[in-house]
Automatic annotation (TrEMBL):
It holds the Pfam family MMR_HSR1. One of its GO terms (molecular function) is metal ion binding. Necessary for normal cell division and for the maintenance of normal septation. The lineage of its organism: Bacteria, Pseudomonadati, Pseudomonadota, Alphaproteobacteria, Rhodospirillales. Its cofactor is Mg(2+). The keyword Calcium does not apply. It comes from the Bacteria. Residues 42-217 form the EngB-type G domain. Belongs to the TRAFAC class TrmE-Era-EngA-EngB-Septin-like GTPase superfamily. EngB GTPase family. PROSITE patterns: G_ENGB. The keyword Lipid metabolism does not apply. GO terms for biological process: division septum assembly. This is Probable GTP-binding protein EngB.
């Protein structure tokens, strides 16, 4: 078997593993507004973070092949808790409150910020954070603040571009190049960027394959 054939075989196996994992039963486990309400960290966890209305809930739904698993809304700031979903007794998927939405109260925003920061710093089972970034707009200051926190806490995170169906190929390529250059300077950033579209399904299989590898980590 040539190197190219070996690579193709491994890629196909990874895609199939991702498909099988995310085809398993996935259900809501818990919603936590405070750290003492977090479920036991007995399974590897993957958290989804990003600015309000970036498409976190839509991506979770697309990954699991379900339309209403995670609540979606056109109104930013609707996710106000850490929402946990158990995937096939293998993973916990965690939908974090969106950051950067100005119309919530200052006290509410402060509470969400403390909750997310404490979760990211202290959750033993957390294997990776998917930092969702709108492909049209790129990183914002709120994203960079969260990245700095994860760099300091040694929490591995990867950038997942959303809404790529709303960008032109050249614009998307330029965005990926710009992000790659910035991520190369970050200590905890996973170097591979995943462009996705929850609407069209682009990149979903590749992201499933990547995340499936984390289900083996205990």
């Amino acid at each position: 078997m040539t190197d190219i054939e070996q690579e193709a075989t491994e890629k196909a196996a990874a895609l199939e593993a991702g498909r099988l994992l995310f085809a398993q039963e996935c259900g809501f486990v818990a919603a936590a507004e405070t750290l003492d309400r977090l479920p036991p960290d007995s399974l590897p966890e993957i958290a989804f973070a990003g600015r309000s209305n970036v498409g976190k809930s839509s991506l979770v739904n697309a990954l699991t092949g379900r339309k209403t698993l995670a609540r979606t809304s056109n109104t930013p700031g609707r996710t106000q808790q850490l929402n946990f979903f158990k995937l096939g007794e293998r993973l916990l998927l965690v939908d974090l409150p969106g950051h950067g939405y100005a119309k919530v109260s200052k006290s509410q925003s402060k509470n969400w910020t403390f909750l997310v920061k404490d979760y990211l710093r202290g959750r033993v089972a957390l294997r990776r954070v998917c930092l969702l970034v709108d492909a049209r707009h790129g990183l914002k200051d709120n994203d960079r603040e969260l990245m700095a926190l994860m760099d300091k806490a040694a929490v591995v995170y990867q950038v997942v571009l959303t809404k790529t169906d709303k960008t032109k190929p050249a614009e998307l390529a330029a965005m990926i190049e710009t992000l790659s250059a910035e991520l190369s300077k970050r200590t905890a950033a996973y170097p591979v960027i995943f462009p996705t579209s929850a609407l069209e399904g682009a990149g979903i299989e590749a992201l499933r394959a990547e995340l499936a590898t984390l289900a083996l980590q205990r």
